[in-house]
């Protein structure tokens, strides 16, 4: 049994409270030593306003989990790396591709572990889906990621600003699964629907293909009320695979497959502990590359204003 | 003396006629064996409608230069690679980052050379600038890339469509130089001005920084009449470097440096020949990464309609 990793968390918002802090508390691999946040608080450990204060006062700190919005994450990540700390990045790993490239190189030089986390890849159906697809010829793929932004992101203004990515904030979860279970693909066209009073899209219709010409279609929509949809359907020459509920349910030709219970963030923190202990990094930019490609290549349409 | 490389060219438009065809004709490293184009023609060699026809009828073909708009380039590039041809890509190397990643992997597997060309890197002042800056501490960088789109891209509708990149078509030349002569940097914010009747920006104001916090500012504008501006100004602790006329003129503290005459495309084709003969590829995505980051992270403002 090795000593727990002394970790600090930066950015006490919804995702930190819902997922990171309970998982860190429950894991024998970690001991939470402090948090830093401009707005949020967390009982039982020292609370700082900034990461710089946390680093200055917590001499034994070994790692940090960065949970603030992507637009504000680079400076903290670089400061942490330069202080010799291992860094866990919430998704997306940055507001730009170039900054994540720079962090990756900085972590390599400083000899610390950098982990760009994609929590949906740790949904229970994802690895079985990847394994099943790896030996089959794919005919077509259809992705539907449709949810109610008012329910999941109440009052989160940053998500609508430039760099907040809008509906790609959940959509990148679908892309993180798709890039993990499918052969490499790329965008051929997209339509992004942007509320006239916002910078980021509320919906996206994305067409991709791969080297074999497979049609891959994705619909992202944040205006879905009632039942929520997070489905990836893959037609193969050998039957149909459906990952639903964001990867928590897997069916093969309509038959439910037995899966362990959902434990995405536990999976992420297990992976981060393994990276730290082996001195490795894991930074896969592909989901963010597809999002950037959609902004670069996609056609924009102005739609009805969105107010929270 | 090795035999000349038997090359075909696809996409006989303005850039092919102005640059590629004269340079291929004048170079001892190449023999032009055919062209393929939907609209253009070229005298003295067989003309085909499509790359597929060219490949089918020209058994001795060894390489192709792809000069069509980026939105249409992937399919041709993949077909050429799979036919065992070396591929020269005009800039930008694709309409998306993901497709260029896929081509890079396909070329590696097939054992052919892939060259993502960035012609401005072969402007005569660029290598001297890179060398001078490599030993100096940089204080700030200012990039101004301002030209008259009506003069340089008359009636080129594809450039205004989604994926055509608008003012980033010339702007990516500035980014290709900046990424070559400066330490790694990333975008912190941008404003893109998009004509209300177009998809692509006519102007951009871009703020970047690097790991040292250096301010790097770029202005791209396609509405410049009169004198045209393609300048990169770098203030260092040790004097001021100015690359102007797109890299054709270099001054250090106001003193003009002696440079050879402009020969960007000759430089590109020399490089491609060297890659083909050594079995190597050269695909640097950084300029396109910065463009994609600007679309992903930048704020859009609607401006006056643009008509040609």
Automatic annotation (TrEMBL), chains A, B:
UniProt-listed InterPro entries: Gfo/Idh/MocA-like_OxRdtase_N, Gfo/Idh/MocA_oxidrdct_glycsds, NAD(P)-bd_dom_sf
SUPFAM superfamilies in the record: NAD(P)-binding Rossmann-fold domains
Domain annotation Gfo/Idh/MocA-like oxidoreductase N-terminal: ranges: 5-115
Segments forming a coiled coil: none
Pfam families: GFO_IDH_MocA
Domain of life according to the entry: Bacteria
GO MF, one annotated term: nucleotide binding
UniProt name for this protein: D-galactose 1-dehydrogenase
């Amino acid at each position: 049994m090795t000593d727990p990793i002394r970790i600090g968390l930066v950015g006490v918002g919804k995702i930190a409270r819902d997922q990171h802090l309970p998982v860190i508390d429950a894991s024998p691999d970690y001991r939470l030593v402090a948090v830093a946040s401009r707005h949020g608080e967390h009982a039982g450990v020292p609370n700082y306003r900034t990461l710089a204060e946390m680093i200055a006062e917590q001499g034994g700190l070994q790692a940090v989990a960065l949970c603030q919005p992507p637009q504000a994450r680079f400076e903290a990540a670089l400061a942490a790396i330069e202080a010799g700390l291992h860094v866990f990045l919430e998704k997306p790993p940055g507001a730009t591709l170039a900054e994540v490239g720079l962090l990756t190189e900085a972590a390599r030089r400083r000899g610390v572990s950098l982990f760009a986390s994609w929590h949906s890849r740790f949904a229970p159906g994802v690895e079985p889906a990847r394994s099943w697809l790896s030996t089959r010829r794919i005919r077509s793929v259809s992705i539907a990621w449709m949810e109610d932004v008012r329910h999941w992101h109440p009052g989160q203004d940053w998500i609508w600003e430039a760099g907040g990515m809008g509906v790609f904030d959940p959509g990148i979860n679908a892309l993180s699964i798709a890039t993990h279970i499918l052969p490499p693909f790329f965008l051929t066209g997209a339509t992004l629907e942007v509320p006239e009073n916002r910078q980021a899209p509320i919906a996206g219709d994305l067409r991709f293909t791969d080297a074999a010409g497979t049609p891959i279609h994705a619909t992202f929509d944040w205006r879905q009320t009632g039942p929520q949809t997070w489905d990836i359907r893959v037609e193969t020459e050998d039957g149909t695979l459906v990952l639903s509920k964001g990867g928590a349910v897997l069916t093969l030709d309509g038959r439910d497959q037995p899966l362990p219970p959902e434990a995405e963030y536990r999976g992420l923190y297990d992976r981060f502990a393994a990276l730290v202990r082996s001195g490795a990094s894991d930074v896969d930019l592909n989901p963010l590359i597809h999002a950037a490609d959609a902004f670069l290549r996609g056609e924009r349409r102005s739609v009805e204003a969105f107010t929270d």
